[in-house]
Every structure is written in C-alpha cells, then in structure tokens.
Amino acid sequence: MSLIIKKTVLFCAAVITCVAASAQPKTYSVANAHSHNDYENQVPFFTAYNAQFGSIEADIFLQNGELIVAHDSIELKKHRTLDKYYLTPLFYAVQKNNGHAYPDTTKQLQMLIDIKSDSINTLNKLIDILKQIPLLSNNKSIKWVITGNRPASSLFTTYPSFISFDGELYKNYSMQALTRIVMLSDDFRNYSQWNGNNLIAGKDRSVLQTAISKAHQLHKPVRFWDAPDNKNTWKQFMQLKVDFINTDHINELAGFLNKK
C-alpha cells in the first residue's frame, strides 16, 4: 500500500471516529430523557416539561378531522386532543419564555409524534395545524419529529422544513432521506431479551454496540423502546452511549439524571 493511500485510509478512519464521537453524549442530563407515551401520565405534558425532558412523545390518530392522542383505537373515546394536551400548553410556555421552549434558551425540546392512523393524511393534518402556529412550527428550539406510521422515506424531503423524522435503526437510508432524519430508534427486543437486572450479556452487548455505532457514524442519536425501565437499565444505556433514555417513570429518571 502506498504512503498516500495509507494516509488517506487513516484520515478517513479518523473522520469516521470523530463524527461518531461527536454524535455521542459527553455527559447525561434530563436533556437525554424521553417521556414515552407521555399522555398516559397522570399529568400529561407538564410532568415531563417541568422536569425539562429533552423529548416528549404523543401518539396520534386522525378521527373526524381532529388529531386525537391515544395509544390504540379503544382510547379514542377519551377524546384527548393534541391541541388541548400538547399544543396549547406548549404555546403558552413558549410565549412565557420569550419564544423559547424552556426558560434556559440553550435547551431544546423534541416533540416526537407517533402516527397511529394513515401516515399521509394524519401528517398533512398535523402540518396544517402547525402552520397556523408559527410560534411552534417556526421555532429553532423545538423539533417536530415523526415516528410510527411514516410516509415512504423517499418523500421525507418533500415535507416542510419544520418536520423531521425518526428513522428505524435497522434500515439503510439514502443520503437524501438522512438529511431529514434526526434520530434512529428501534425495538430493544430486536437486539436482546435482557430483563434489566445485572449486566447485559456479552453477546447482546456486542450486538447493541454495533447498532449504536452505526447510528453514531451517521451522526444520529439513538433511542430504544420496549426496553427495561429501571435505574440499572439507565446506567447500562449510558455506558452504551444510548442518546435518549426511554422512560415511563419521569420523576424517577429526572432524579437519577439530576444527581449525575
């Protein structure tokens, strides 16, 4: 191998290493916390927001022209609208914070919208609503990220710039689609059946590390859902450099991270 080729290979390896490193959290805080199925909490939105979580999730259905927050069709009867539970309280919070998601202007909020009904029509309805609220849609401190039923990745770039997407970790995307993907997520059970106790087995850890490295080499944060949700798991995920820690236990995770 010539000296020039050797230098080129070493340079490329260094670039990949730097990019991967820059995608990993150097320190953990509540900015790395994700409120999974947030609307199932006794106090939706405000519990995670007051804890200053970096990411909050709402599942939505399009029903009779309205966006209803629900995990499945049975919950639709509760008639929890996205507007009442999330958009309105977020709007007033941003107003209070002089246009920022949080009083600390360096903090960002990711609103992860999990589409449960038709991907195209539901997303179009969401876009129509957000266009009417520029304080939320045209806001650099808020990311609107679509997960669940998504349109084909070839269509990602056709949507307004305030809409981003949650990619699926196991998939390979075109460079064009990756420009609109801001996170890569997957079902933890596709990688391990670990129950959250003791340490993750060596083989499973290796599989997880490979998947996480793939995301970081693309400069994308990573999140796992359907994972154990306890202090030991959070510690293990931090060691693995998982960027967003999924939880249904907002106050417990907030307390754990704030001690860090």
Can you offer a commentary on this structure?
- With 260 residues, this protein is α/β, with parallel strands linked by helices.
- The protein has a single domain (3-259), classed as Phosphatidylinositol (PI) phosphodiesterase (TIM Barrel, Alpha-Beta Barrel), CATH 3.20.20.
- The protein contains 9 helices and 9 strands.
- The chain has helices at residues 3-23, 46-50, 82-96, 119-131, 134-137, 175-178, 202-217, 231-240, 250-259, and strands at residues 33-35, 55-63, 66-69, 109-115, 142-148, 163-168, 181-187, 222-225, 245-247.
- Strands 1, 2, 3, 4, 5, 6, 7, 8 and 9 form a 9-stranded mixed β-sheet that branches.
- Strand 7 (181-187), helix 7 and strand 8 (222-225) form a beta-alpha-beta unit.
- The longest helix has 21 residues, at 3-23.
- The protein is globular, with a radius of gyration of 19 Å.
- 35% of the residues are buried.
- Residues 1-22 have low confidence and may be disordered.
Secondary-structure blueprint of this entry?
Blueprint: H1 3-23, E1 33-35, H2 46-50, E2 55-63, E3 66-69, H3 82-96, E4 109-115, H4 119-131, H5 134-137, E5 142-148, E6 163-168, H6 175-178, E7 181-187, H7 202-217, E8 222-225, H8 231-240, E9 245-247, H9 250-259
Parallel strand pairs: 1-2, 1-9, 2-4, 4-5, 5-6, 6-7, 7-8
Antiparallel strand pairs: 2-3
Helix pairs in contact: 1-7
